[in-house]
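Thread: adenine complex, take 2
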Amino acid sequence: MTSVPRIELHLHLEGAAPPAFIRSLAAEKRRDLSGVFDAAGNYRWTVFRDFLRVYEAATSVLAGPEDYARLLRLVLESCAEQGAIYVETFVSPEFCGGADLPAWREHVAAWSEVAADMDRQGIASRGIVTPIRHFGPEKARRSAICAAETAGGWIAGLGLAGAETAGKPQDFAWSFDCAREAGLGLTCHAGEWCGPQSVRDALGLGVTRIGHGVRAIDDPALVRDLAEQGVTLEVCPGSNVALGLYPDWPSHPIARLADAGCRVTVSTDDPPFFDTTLSREYDRLADAFGWGEPDFARLNHWALDAAFCDAATRDRLR
Ligand code: ADE
Ligand code: ZN
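Output below.
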């Protein structure tokens, strides 16, 4: 492992759930999750739509603040083992009590307690409230209200995940405006399944970060704009390769984006789904592009610059 302290900005909490944890919850609750796991006990999916289906089926056994708090602790422990000192994780009111504000507050209180404890153990974290694009703008509004009402502590941002082909970023403008007014940082998945226009549309929401953003590489003018505006790309190369966006690591555009002056960072997205870890991402970047400590130090510096935590936490982590 490199000695560079790692910052992870793009990690879906449910997507980081170890399959064994989901299986044990399903057994406790006598829930049938056939179709979710393969014979070896790993998540079983084929293409992106199927990934989303399996993701949502696995998530359905998580019920209530206690399950979600146990999950956050497991995930942060595993990130710490991977050398992370700061993690931002996507959390979705739409999965946690159906974007009902009292239920949401209970989830945030439970996460905040775990996060404070893990902070004392050397790993800081924040949550990014993440509406699901294919659940539609109306549910996103309710999530944004949950975000705004719990802003300021552990909840530090608003994002947008799910099927990028389902609706335009502009359809979610109300939610992003609501979150901005509450002082939250803004990011949006874009340029994963759709091309450069999707990234431009996401920038129109006033985000400072883009989740993935890799398809910007198809438009040199957009790449220049991203570099000039200092927009941070939350790049998850292992996810992109596993989902078939790129056939292999050497074809992935992360190095070309970095060479063009874009602020690229590295995250794992949904590690057990994509058979990855932070260490594997770094090792494969080293193999594919010859990246070493100075490159990793630079991208982690950019990641901390772009983190949605307060300035005091950022200074403490520098
Ligand atoms: N939710 C979890 N992983 C995702 C991804 N890679 N893209 C969009 N939504 C997601
Ligand atoms: Zn993602």
